[in-house]
Amino acid sequence: MPAAGTGSVSASWSLQSAPMKAVLISRQGDPVAPQVTIADDLPDPIAGPGRVVVRTEAAALNHLDLWIGRGVPGMKLEYPRISGSDGCGRVESVGEGIDTAWVGRRVILNAAMPQPVAPLPGVEPAMPPLRVIGEHEPGCMAERFVAPVSNVVAVSDAIDPVDGAAFGLSHLTAWSMLVTRAGLRPGHTVLITGIGGGVALSALGICRHLGATTVVTSRHRRKLDRAVELGADHVVLDTGEEWSREVRDRTGGRGVDICVDSIGRAVHESCMRSLVAGGAFVTCGTTSGPIASTSLARLFWLQLRMIGSTMGDMGEFRAITALLESGGLRPVIDSVHDAPNAAAAYDRLESGGQFGKVVVRFS
Length: 363
Prior knowledge:
With 363 residues, the protein is an alpha/beta fold. The protein folds into two domains: 9-154 and 332-361, Medium-chain alcohol dehydrogenases, catalytic domain (Quinone Oxidoreductase, Chain A, domain 1); 171-308, Medium-chain alcohol dehydrogenases, catalytic domain (Quinone Oxidoreductase, Chain A, domain 1, Alpha-Beta Complex). It contains ten helices and 17 strands. The longest helix is centred in the middle third of the chain and has 21 residues, at 161-181. It is globular, with a radius of gyration of 20 Å.
């Protein structure tokens, strides 16, 4: 495989006789949607040792797909590229060392592949760096994608492929943020900013499942109304002004135990002022910008925690997949687009008007 962030589409996979259709980001650009094209003559992937080829039934978009199109800061990307870090489909073939019992099974993908870290004597291993399918390697926006067998989980045929594709990355990220990093417990109050995005809606579903009270924000009244229909307890309309007083009003003056945020600079101060003593601010993204100011006096005086979180491991992924199978968690779908119209899916995500996941259907 090519090094992270390098290599063309054709160089990333071995040649096989049958051509493959794929959704390509043809070149770097902003907006991204005009750069999205369809190719029908790409080489079919072949599974290497420890890997499987999955025939894609559906793939979902994340903000990562937009960053891939616009260019990831600090990474040299070559185009055209196949993005897509959320996919659901059936295993079509397996590489060396993989049991053929996988063939024909419907699977969903955890795109985050931890890389080994060389141990040092007397030093605890660091958290491993990640390679991400759809970022460092060709993604799911194609008729077939390749993944390590250790990064897919088999699901029952009862799971709709659109739900399977929409579920993985956002629920894994939200679960890791809330449960693993922030220590969510029943009875906690959680602030979720920017309701309507995939991670925010996944966080809302997890909070409801685990018995937490929720306060959600949005710049759009219609999104707040939809959130109430999905079980949000309190809503705050973000008018661009500081809104922590409104959060405290909604919580009887107390504030929140956890804030889940992926917006960044535009709402950071309001988030921090909304936390109770001992509360946790946990972030997985910065769509409004990464540079924000924080009062260190507030941080130490109230013994607050600031936590970064990215995706999650396979133990967490299996935990959320079990909840998908049982019906305990379900993704919210904004729209479904057939693969030939994939540019419209990127445009929908780029517009910011979506409420839930934007999915591309391949079969």
